[in-house]
Design a protein that fits this description.
2 domains; about 5% strand
């Protein structure tokens, strides 16, 4: 009887879980630290992955915040599933680490973390931690070939939209592919201006906002997250238009200097405000079924 209470009561992790699982913690740290360093040197140092450190910090905070809520713990019913998940994840990690494929490396580390959680607290508790676990998946950087396939048409569209809008107002601007000509200057629309960076960042922030404010309202969350896509694209069209106007009136040196980054940060903040405003409107006008499902 005492044994059953010890397991079902959630104390099988021990009175001091850090001391009891110190070898496991050291092993996870040995995998995680080199990967975090690689992310800092590669993905997180670019505009496309600048949200990574924030996602990591917020994801860990959410895990700690929800940890006691997820109790009681229960051992996994399938130790074989835990072992299989661990072996497959480690294979991804080793492959990515050996051949410098950061996507495989981070995905493998993420899989190791999920497998260890499952083997330690069981499926029921892991399901209660679904949002922090899902949120940490934003740390996995998408492969470059996929990003190239997605951003190419987006760059074409935002370039056309920015040029067409400014041309309608008499600005001497022309376009050839993703290259924009204004006055004597030539501007290249890069991946950062396609809208994908804003979409990923807005989705991450929006999901966190919905979870903390609205709870687990899946249908409502899906609708609001879908709305971030046109918001982010529109924001990047305005960003490109702003840079074109800065170049036209003040020259390339001004447009590509401090104001270049400032425009991006300012418009991202505006995008967030638009998403939050849309959330308020939808929450008031949508039927109750959308807010309870």
């Amino acid at each position: 009887m005492a044994e059953d209470q010890r397991v079902e009561g959630g104390s099988f992790l021990g009175k001091n879980p850090i001391a009891a699982h110190f070898p496991l913690i050291v092993g996870l740290a040995a995998l995680a630290v080199p990967t975090i360093v690689s992310l800092g040197q590669q993905t997180w140092s670019t505009e496309a992955g600048a949200h990574g450190p924030i996602v990591l910090a917020v994801g860990v905070w959410l895990l700690v915040r929800e940890w006691n809520v997820a109790k009681p713990w229960s051992p996994p019913r399938s130790p074989a599933l835990s072992l299989a998940g661990l072996i497959i994840s480690l294979a991804f990690y080793v492959f990515g680490r050996a051949f410098d494929f950061i996507t495989f490396e981070v995905a493998g580390l993420y899989g190791v973390g999920v497998s260890v959680l499952y083997s330690s607290i069981g499926l029921r508790a892991l399901r209660r931690l679904w949002f922090p676990v899902l949120y940490l998946a934003f740390l996995v950087p998408p492969p470059n070939w996929l990003m190239d396939q997605i951003t190419a048409p987006l760059k074409q569209f935002v370039s056309w939209a920015a040029m067409s809008t400014l041309s309608a107002f008499g600005v001497p601007v022309a376009r050839e592919g993703v290259t924009i000509f204004v006055s004597s200057y030539r501007l290249l629309v890069e991946d950062a201006c396609s809208g994908m960076n804003s979409i990923v960042g807005l989705v991450a922030v929006s999901l966190l906002y919905i979870y903390l404010l609205r709870g687990s309202q899946l249908r409502f969350a899906a609708l609001l997250v879908a709305s971030t896509i046109p918001v982010a694209i529109a924001g990047n069209i305005i960003r490109i238009m702003t840079l074109i106007l800065l170049t036209y009136f003040f020259g390339d040196e001004v447009a590509q200097g401090f104001l270049h980054q400032t425009a991006g940060l300012f418009l991202f903040a505006v995008d967030l405000l638009l998403v939050f405003s849309l959330d308020t409107i939808l929450w008031r006008v949508l039927p109750k079924s959308w807010k309870t499902a």
